[in-house]
Each structure stands twice: as C-alpha cells, then as structure tokens.
Amino acid sequence: MADYHDDLRFAHVLADAADAATMERFKALDLKVETKPDMTPVSEADKAAEELIRSQLQRARPRDAVLGEEFGSEGTGPRRWVVDPIDGTKNYVRGVPVWATLIALMERGAGGDRPVVGVVSAPALGRRWWAAEGLGAYSGRSLTSAHRLHVSKVAELRDASFAYSSLSGWEERGKLNGFLDLTRACWRTRGYGDFWPYMMVAEGSVDLCAEPELSLWDMAANAVIVQEAGGRFTGLDGVPGPNSGDAAASNGLLHGAMLDYLR
User: Fold this and answer.
1) Is the pLDDT of residue 88 over 70?
2) Which end of the chain is more exposed for a tag (fewer CB within 10 A), N or C?
3) What is the mean pLDDT of the chain?
4) Residue 207 and residue 164: Cα distance in Å, rounded?
5) Closest CA to 183 of 76, 258, 84
C-alpha cells in the first residue's frame, strides 16, 4: 500500500493557507459576492482561496492534476487534487460559521479514481478533520494534537440520527416520498447541511446522511474521512466512492436500509 504521510502533511499546509485567506474576509462588510450561471453564490474569498491552493500545488506538486470548483480542471495524470475552497458559501456570505475548505487527493487505480487523502478545515468552527488511506481518520487542531475517529455502532434505523441538507433537492428529483419515509423510520433527523453531517458520521455523533445532487469537490475529502473512520460512502446507486453525483454516508450497519428508502 502506498504511503500518503507526505501528501497528508502537505494537504494540512494547503488548508492552513486557505484558512488564513478565508477567515480574513469572513464577515467583511465589503465582501464581494457574485452569482454563477448555476445560480449559486461565489465570493471573492472562494476565488482567492482556490488560487492560493493552486499556486502552492503548482510549486510543490507540478506533475499532479487539479480540479477546483471555481477554476475547473488543469493537468492530467494518475494523481489529482480536488478542491472546494469554501463548501457552504451561502453560510459564509451570511456570516454563519458552518463552512469549510475541502481538499482531497485522488489516485487512479484498477477500480477507477479513488480519494486517498482528505482534509476538511472549518476555521470559523475551530475544527479540522482529516484522513489518508490506510492511516485512519482524525480530528483536532493539528497532526500532533488529534484524536482518532470512529463511526457509531447503531444498528437499527429506529435508533439512528439522520442528517440532510434540504427537502427541495429530493423533491426536484422525485425522491421526496422515500426521503420522508426514511426520516419517519429514524429516531432523529436534523438539517445540518454541507460537509458537517459527513464529519459527524465519521465522529459517530450522527449515524447516516445523504444528499441527492453533488459535485466531486463536495464529496472527495468527505468520502475518505468517512471510510477511514470505519463507515461507508457511496452514491445513492450503492457504488462506493464520490463519483456518482450524489451521496450516502453511514456507519456501514445502516447503509443498505438507507439506500432501500432513497433509491
């Protein structure tokens, strides 16, 4: 198995730089915000953070490809860094502290591209989560000050806590009835949204979460962290990994039951 210690350390360096850039403009009264063609917002901080990450990647990992939400794809090869400079931009521009920079390294193998390193850094919450293939998943202030993450052992939906982002996406895709049936089958439901429910699955404080439409940069870092914490991360089609355009994450014990409702 490949050793991803150096890549993980470098991902933390990238996250440190992004945190400084995003926190500098968080709650700024003169923050510039535009609307993209898909009608989602993008702030000057999104662009600045991604540009900063790309410049550091170009210097330190010039042979690796990069895919980012704001500036698209660049380069080719078996290794690709996938970046969401601010996951939760709508929260960011409204002053809500639930947003994060997502950084993942994906590597091409016999089964296709898979995430092997992931860092999720939420500086306004004072939290960071990370994982690398074969090394486990962790949360803490730094690589040297961290605790290992483990998913929950809840084995029945009636005892489970289910997290989601919104109702509208499920309705638009004709899956609202199954989604609502799942919420009724669970003990507790909460609409946390964005990266956070996946991190709570990895921590064991939430047992399952799902979203009906996502991009690769929304999922790649989350996927490796959930998996290294002992959970499962698939599309709604049950295919492992972050490549299905939607996502379902769980402690593993509840995964089949969740997908039965959401398919």
Assistant:
1) yes
2) N
3) 93
4) 11
5) 258
Rounded Cα distance, 49 and 16, in Å: 10
CB-based contact 163:191 (threshold 8 Å):
yes
Alpha carbons 176 and 48: distance in angstroms, whole number: 37
Residue 216 tokens, joined? 């690769």
Taking the model in full, what pTM does it have? 0.95
Mean pLDDT, range 112-136, rounded to an integer: 96
Asked if residues 9 and 143 have their Cβ atoms less than 8 Å apart, the reply is: yes
pLDDT level of residue 144 (50, 70, 90 thresholds)? confident
Q: Which residue has the tokens 């929260």?
A: 91
Contact criterion met (CB below 8 Å) for 234 and 248: yes
Distance of CA 189 to the CA centre of its chain: 20
Judge whether 152 and 204 are in contact, CB under 8 Å: yes
The single-letter code of the amino acid at 101 is: T
Between CA 169 and CA 250 the distance in angstroms is 20
